[in-house]
Amino acid sequence: MRAVVLDEFGAPEMLRLRDVPTPVPAPGEVVVRVAAVEVSRTRDLGTRSGKHPFSQAVRLPHVLGGHCSGTVVGAGDGVPRDLVGRRVAVMGHHTCGHCASCRSGADEACEGLRLLGIHRWGSYAQYTSMPQECVHPVPDDLDLYDAAAMAATGPVGLTQLRRARLQAGDSIVLPGATGALARTIVALTRRLDVRVIGLSRSVTGRAENLVVLDAGREDLADAILAAAGGPPAAAIDNVCAPDTFERYFPVLAGGARIVVSGAIGHPALPVLNVPARELYSRNLSLLGVRSHSAAVATEFWQLVRDGFRLDAETVRAHPLSDAATVHTKIADGVLTGHNVLVPPTATDRQEVPE
Ligand SMILES: [Zn+2]
Question: Enoyl reductase (ER) domain spans which residues (predicted)?
Fold first, then answer.
């Protein structure tokens, strides 16, 4: 099969399309013909550079790529045969099931968490394989490009919203409003009657329950209060740019929750200056969300089967062969939001695993 292979850590040009062996289904696993894989800034660009903590778990040569979508074409021993032929979303996390976190139901903190595209070859390829429990059938009318984008951001976005403990009528600060995860969060908040104050360095505007403010404006604190109609109840900050944090932090409501699942606000990973006294005097919570539990993933895909969709035209598709260019454009901020890579169609029947 064709796959984008990383032989050495470094610049985007290290990503090269070439032939590698097609995966065969191991016991308990499925092989999926990949329709689309979302490019993740944190996971993919960070890992490729060799400078992200994820890189230490990678053995070269390597195939990047996590959450994706496609069609099940092979099933190992113990996997129901009726999964073969199903259109699915593939969650790129697999938990061990027996550590203390897994046993207590907090499997997102699994000590043995295995990530597709980090601990095993990923989905920048025509085929990928994962344990059966990581695939979720998707509705026939759901575009598989959207399914890949949802897999990458839906369950983690839902987890962040849960941690933010929002109630109807609340408002929330959302730095990095043009990012992929942020767009999914905005779509999810429409079901909750929550007003979103997005912050961005590149765009401003307004749509339905969303107002996007220029993150760099001098009067940002006042602008947030005006747009929110009062102190916001929470922030979901997956950028953690220190200067932006220092502007919105003072205007959060007493008891507010600040939820963090990413940290792309500085090339060397940002460090936030958190006034410790205010954490207790204002009863604030600073919460890290690493990923999502298997239960939340199941819940999210049920929402999708019940009709949840991303906004139209939020997903941009690129040929897999353009992986290096897409990495460069995301790093430069030229591409934002959901960007998926689409592998070449496998027409050679020899390539389809039995
Ligand atoms: Zn575990």
Answer: 10-341
Report the C-alpha gap between 90 and 87 in whole angstroms. Answer: 10
Task: Evaluate whether 336 touches 203 at the Cβ level (below 8 Å).
Answer: no
b/e map 189-223, b = 16+ CB within 10 Å: beeeebbbbbbbeeeeeeeebbbbbebeeeebeeb
2-142+309-351, what's its fold? Quinone Oxidoreductase; Chain A, domain 1 (3.90.180)
Give distance in angstroms: CA of 102 to centre of ligand 1.
Answer: 4
Specify the pLDDT at position 347: 54
Distances (CA, A) of 138 to 12, 280, 293, 337: 32, 44, 19, 22
The structural domains of the chain, with segments of one domain joined by +, span 2-142+309-351, 155-288
- Is the CB of residue 126 less than 8 Å from the CB of residue 33? yes
Q: What type of residue sits at position 184?
A: T
Centre of ligand 1 from the C-alpha of residue 108, in Å:
8
Give the residues across from 207 on adjacent strands: 210
Q: Which residues have C-beta under 5 Å from ligand 1, the single-atom ion?
A: 95-96, 99, 102, 110, 112
C-alpha of residue 53 to centroid of ligand 1, in Å: 19
What distance in angstroms lies between residue 277's CA and the mean position of ligand 1's atoms? 35
Q: Tell me the pLDDT tens digit for each residue of 224-252.
A: 999 999 999 999 999 999 999 999 999 99
State residue 349's pLDDT score.
Answer: 43
Q: Which CATH architecture group holds 155-288?
A: 3-Layer(aba) Sandwich (3.40)
CA of 77 to the centre of ligand 1 (A): 23
Ligand 1 center to 293 CA (angstroms): 11
Please tell me the distance between residue 241's alpha carbon and the centre of ligand 1 in angstroms.
Answer: 31
- What is the reported pLDDT for 207? 86
Expressed in angstroms and rounded, the spacing between residue 30 Cα and the centre of ligand 1 is 21
Matching CATH topology for 2-142+309-351 and 155-288? no
Residue 269 has pLDDT above 80, yes or no: no
